[in-house]
Amino acid sequence: xxxNTPIIELKGVGEKTQKLFQKLGIExxxxxxxxxxxxxxxxxxxxxxxxxxxxxxCSVCAAVAGIPNEKKVRKLSILNVNVSDGxxxxxxxxxxxxxxxxALKQGAFYVFRGxxxxxxxxxxxxxxxxxSPEEYKRQTDSLIPKYSxxxxxxxxxxxxxxxxxxxxxxxxxxxYPEKLLADCGLxxxxxxxxxxxxxxxxxxxxxxxxxxxxxxxxxxxxLLRQNRSFSEGLPNQYRMFETADTxxxxxxxxxxxxxxQKKVWQEIRDDLSSPRCMNRLVQGDVGSGKTILALLALLMxxxxxxxxxxxxxxxxxxxQHYETVCGYVEKFGLxxxxxLLVGSMTARExxxxxxxxxxxxxxxxxxxxxxxxxxVTYHSLALVVTDEQHRFGVHQRxxxxxxxxxxxxxxxSATPIPRTLAIILYGxxxxxxxxxxPADRLPIKNCVVNxxxxxxxxxxxxxxxxxxxxxxxxxxxxxxxxxxxxxNVVDYAEKLKGALPADIQVAYLHGKMRPADKNRIMxxxxxxxxxxxxxxxxxxVGINVPxxxxxxxxxxxxxxxxxxxxxxxxxxxxxxxxxxIFVSAQEKPETMxxxxxxxxxxxxxxxxxxxxxxxxxxxxxxIRQSGAFSFRMGDIYTDAxxxxxxxxxxxxxxxxxxxxxxxEHGKLRRHLEETAANQVDxxxx
Length: 685
Ligand code: ADP
Ligand code: MG
Fold this sequence. Notes:
Blueprint: H1 15-23, H2 29-34, E1 39-42, E2 57-73, E3 76-84, E4 89-95, H3 100-103, E5 109-119, E6 122-126, E7 129-131, H4 133-139, E8 143-146, H5 155-168, H6 178-184, H7 189-197, H8 202-232, H9 244-252, H10 259-273, E9 279-284, H11 290-303, E10 307-312, H12 315-332, E11 338-341, H13 347-359, E12 364-368, H14 369-373, E13 381-386, H15 394-402, E14 408-413, H16 419-425, E15 430-434, E16 445-450, H17 454-466, E17 470-474, H18 489-499, E18 506-509, H19 515-526, E19 532-535, E20 548-553, H20 561-568, E21 579-584, H21 589-600, H22 604-614, H23 640-656, H24 666-677
Parallel strand pairs: 4-6, 9-14, 9-15, 10-12, 10-13, 11-12, 13-14, 16-21, 17-19, 17-20, 18-19, 20-21
Antiparallel strand pairs: 1-8, 2-3, 2-5, 3-4, 5-6, 5-7
Bound molecules: adenosine-5'-diphosphate and magnesium ion.
The site of magnesium ion has 6 residues, from helix 11.
């Protein structure tokens, strides 16, 4: 079996299973093996019932004591059964598993595994998994991979398919030169692929992961180096001069620019009028006022008779920018002729907009990345601004360059990254930093609490709503099969409705909703017909509703600090005092220490560097900064040292053989070219 063998050729994978895998984007054996576990489960020795800790996932070896008791609530069967191990009793609850009435033999021992909760003075476990003691023993202390699943596909089926694929797979030949492997302490690619799925122990998992993360960073950085050589030499084909438009706009704004904004605006103006094409990243903490800078650059472009595009990662954000711009045009008579281009528009609307773009009637195009890059013919595209995106990939740059001459590029990022990392990750861009917040901001008040604080938090939210403010409640994304561990957005919104006074409008938002629905909810929240918005991290990016003053984050322990800081940035954007409540379902000292960093600082750069310090290589699959740099596996914080190593190794290699033309680098060059074609999707990096 090879990379491209369709998975249906695996034994046990029929058409039905194939469809399920396809839902996860897995078509070939190569895809399957590239789908690394999202976590590992270690079956530890069972714990005595009198030693259980509520909130943790534990295994208990206990005998069935008494007859299972079944209740029916509408279509749901609820089966309660007590088990005991001599040190105490534990109540198990199973849903829709009536067959267990017979299957669980009274007096027999089983191992039950699940999350322990305490109810009154009793420990309970809902929907535990169960094993015979022998079966459990066989698996004790081994690392069992947990995959991202979809409804209908079990972890076991996934594992079996992977196991089989590994057995018959013709592994790719090693592509790194031996010297590089040795210098960087890397295991071979085939060893790594095997061990990432079925690690013998934690050490081999660590090695496997390091190798795969190194690979990911290495090809990313290779692309970056190419990007740099591609864009460094580009001449400025749209030399601009400053006009009265931007000066007037600044005079009309209700606030003066901060010193930092002024400095960056000067850098952008210099770029636009210099002999070289602009390739600049603007980094600034949330709320530092980057949008105005983007608008100023776009206005200068329009005033010089060119077109500019503003690309946002989500429709919600694109729509919001469009509203802002239209508001400014109306209020200040700016010379923008803006259009919005997003996926949820009808074919006809899109056609009309595209006509305006190609005729030059529109001079500011606001939309989502995918649309702005595809199919659109521009009249005179001179500047592309990407908001809340961390990188502008070679592919994008080339795609736009094909449309005519290479436009100026301005990338806005709100993820503060420590300087050491920024130099590596943004090596191909000039960096501007907006290192100051507008002076009129009240610092956000923070607190880190456990789940017992919820009723008080709800009361607080209700109080704020009464005063006319709004609130966000963020829950982590839910993975199939993980429901019981996490707060799910839809259920949560229901619960919250019950807990808040009836006149408070609660709505929810999550990534799986249709874009049009998401936009509608966001618009309603912005218009204040919704008071409390329960959401996954889809609201993390760029949303600006200055009237929102409370950000409550559930399961805060599941998020990286930088991400939590982003979330917090959704409040404190207006004149009102804002509050952030981080709810942690775990009270481990490490977790609390991490969250305390947020409690004490509102400075994104400081938080990012603390995150870097606090998270070591031991932090294998715990927290990912989803939303920031979405490498498949690597995490720029946890794996900062691997990133630095990959960067140094690549530089060394390219110094000795810039084009990788030596015969001993042939395999590597081919590998990098192949991976470049389907390199990480830059839109979400
Ligand atoms: P971000 O940098 O996170 O993208 P925004 O550009 O959305 O921040 O700005 C956040 C809010 O601050 C907006 O409501 C904006 O109008 C306001 N703002 C921007 N610059 C200033 C300033 N110099 N003084 C006061 N408010 C400002
Ligand atoms: Mg922004």
